[in-house]
Write a structure and sequence with these properties.
The complex is a heterodimer of chains A (about 260) and B (about 250). Chain A is of the alpha/beta class. Chain A has a domain of about 180 residues: Rossmann fold, CATH 3.40.50. Chain A is built from nine helices and nine strands. In chain A, strands 5-6-7-3-8-9 form a six-stranded mixed beta sheet, with helices on both faces. Chain A has a three-stranded antiparallel beta sheet with strand order 2-1-4. In chain A, a hairpin with a 2-residue loop joins β8 and β9. The N and C termini of chain A lie far apart (about 45 Å). Chain B has one domain: MetI-like fold, CATH 1.10.3720. Chain B is about 80% helix and about 0% strand. Chain B has ten helices and no strands. In chain B, α3 packs parallel to α6, α3 runs antiparallel to α8 and α6 runs antiparallel to α8. The longest helix of chain B is centred in the C-terminal third of the chain and has 38 residues. Chain B is globular and about 75 Å long. The chains are: A alpha/beta (about 260), B mainly alpha (about 250). Chains A and B meet through loops of A and α7 and α8 of B.
């Protein structure tokens, strides 16, 4: 069997065990009215990589993520996931900054939202229970969302995103609203499930430390263009406070804060 | 003690009323004693007359409510979901809303006489607006972020409606429902008092002609009881349907 063919038309079962999707952008521009947010972005993301997108507020990083996730269409250029630029992207799942759980559904039903394409009720339930266990929320299936803490809600959102075994997980500042300790726990959790499943992950964040802790590659977006493209070749699991990590973090922060010594 | 406390004032009032009637301070033609009203109630219940009137009144109320509420719900949903539909209909509906529906009574009697249609039409018109306005408001206030999430997670339009829009609009729809129930009884009382040959309102007006003040007072109490019953049912429904909402949850 040809590997390329498999990549283009993944069987449901192949999707479960397969690794991540590849992403490729060619000349992608996005304008809102007269305001151009992204300027002709060319980008290739290898399957199974964790890519962090950092940048100041309003630099276009969230817009870029929404284009990749298929929530938005480019003004010009093409965005393709696994070589396909059209059609529903059911291999892609998105996690938002807010948990966006349905308040009128219990935890388990909220996870099942990620499986709405599956018509078999019992299978849905079993898969949802499995993925809830993976994020450490066994026993909370029957709870209403409002009784959960912020971190627990985000775990449910993560479970919902993972339930359908996506090949690309897009995360839009998913930990932005959490306290420092919960953030570190969530970063570890995301890293653990990523190592387990091998999907491609794209994380938008304004926290450079978080980017260095999670990513294989960091893209710095500035005024709608990729201003920096840094490979983070550090062994996993990464220790916080590592000197090499600090050096990378320093370089990126210098650029973000427009400090001297790192002119483009 | 907390359970007894709210009842003290009503019981004292009734006792005072009874005493005032007993000692001739209140003439029976103005306000008969509570015991006389209770006797009238017993008489009407035993003869089956009460049941006949309650049945017909309830039937009118429910049919009118179903028609007016149903149309209000559908139009509220349509105008909340489709900008096109809203542009087309909303300003017209808002204009009609400014006509007090009870002002139409002379016209309605000309159209329908004093048949059932007249009462049902008035009730339907009365309950339409609270249901319409609150359904529309409910759909509009559904969290956009949840809608976006639903779409991103591949929900069909049907699933989006059933799992996101409808539950999101429900708290507001219940506000409309309870308000509409009040209007429903109010409209019916007026309509039955003015133009009817059966129903509780007719029972009261008929008793007035024969100076049966006890029956008149009792009819008023029946209306109050029916209104309270309808509101209680709505509250139970609200608690069941909105159990997810911390504001209604029993902590």
């Amino acid at each position: 069997m040809n590997v390329t063919v498999l990549d283009h038309f993944p069987e449901p079962d192949a999707r479960v065990s397969s690794s991540g999707a590849s992403v490729s952008l060619r000349g992608v521009t996005r304008s809102f009215g007269a305001h151009r947010v992204l300027h002709g972005i060319d980008l290739d993301i290898a399957p199974g990589q964790v890519v962090a997108i950092v940048g100041r507020s309003g630099c276009g990083k969230s817009t870029l993520l929404r284009l990749i996730a298929g929530l938005d269409a480019p003004t010009s250029g093409t965005v393709s996931v696994d070589g396909r630029s059209e059609g529903p992207r059911d291999t892609v799942r998105l996690m938002f900054q807010e948990p966006r759980l349905l308040p009128w559904q219990r935890v388990l039903a909220n996870v099942e939202v990620g499986l709405s394409h599956n018509t078999d009720r019992r299978q849905r339930r079993r898969q949802a229970e499995e993925v809830l266990a993976q994020v450490g929320l066994t026993g909370r299936e029957r709870d209403w969302p409002w009784v959960l803490s912020g971190g627990q809600k985000q775990r449910v959102a993560l479970a919902r995103a993972l339930a359908s075994h996506p090949r690309l997980l897009a995360l839009d500042e998913p930990l932005g609203a959490l306290d420092a300790l919960t953030r570190i726990e969530m970063q570890d959790l995301i890293e653990r499930v990523w190592r387990d499943k091998g999907f491609t992950a794209i994380v938008v964040t304004h926290d450079v430390t978080e980017a260095v802790a999670l990513a294989d590659r960091i893209l710095l977006i500035e005024q709608g263009r990729v201003a920096m493209d840094v490979d983070v070749d550090l062994p996993r699991p990464r220790r916080r406070g590592d000197a090499q990590a600090a050096a990378i973090e320093g370089r990126i922060l210098d650029r973000l804060l427009q400090r001297s010594g790192d002119a483009p | 003690m907390k359970r007894v406390l709210p009842w003290i004032v009503p019981i004292l009032l009734i006792a005072a009323w009874q005493a005032a009637s007993q000692f001739g301070l209140l003439r029976a033609q103005v306000l008969p004693a509570p015991t006389a009203v209770a006797e009238a109630a017993w008489r009407l219940t035993r003869s089956g007359e009460l049941w006949t009137h309650v049945k017909i009144s309830t039937w009118r109320a429910l049919v009118g409510f179903a028609i007016g509420g149903g149309i209000g719900f559908v139009l509220g949903m349509a105008n909340g979901l489709s900008a096109m539909s809203e542009t087309l209909l909303d300003s017209t509906l808002q204009m009609i809303r400014n006509i007090p529906h009870l002002a139409l009574i002379p016209l309605v009697i000309l159209w329908f006489g004093i048949d059932e249609e007249a009462k049902i039409f008035l009730v339907a018109l009365g309950v339409f607006f609270p249901i319409y306005v609150n359904t529309l408001h409910g759909v509009r206030s559904v969290d956009r972020q949840l809608l976006e999430m639903g779409r991103a997670y591949g929900m069909s339009e049907r699933q989006l409606f059933l799992r996101v829009v409808l539950p999101g609009a429900l708290p507001s729809i219940f506000v409309g429902l309870r308000y509409a129930l009040g209007i429903m009884w109010l409209t019916l009382i007026v309509a039955e008092t003015i133009a009817a040959s059966s129903g509780i309102g007719y029972m009261a007006m008929n008793a007035r002609e024969f100076m049966l003040v006890d029956v008149v007072v009792f009819a008023i109490l029946v209306y109050a009881a029916l209104g309270k019953l309808a509101d209680s049912i709505a509250r139970v429904l609200e608690r069941v349907c909105l159990a997810w909402n911390p504001a209604y949850a029993k902590v």
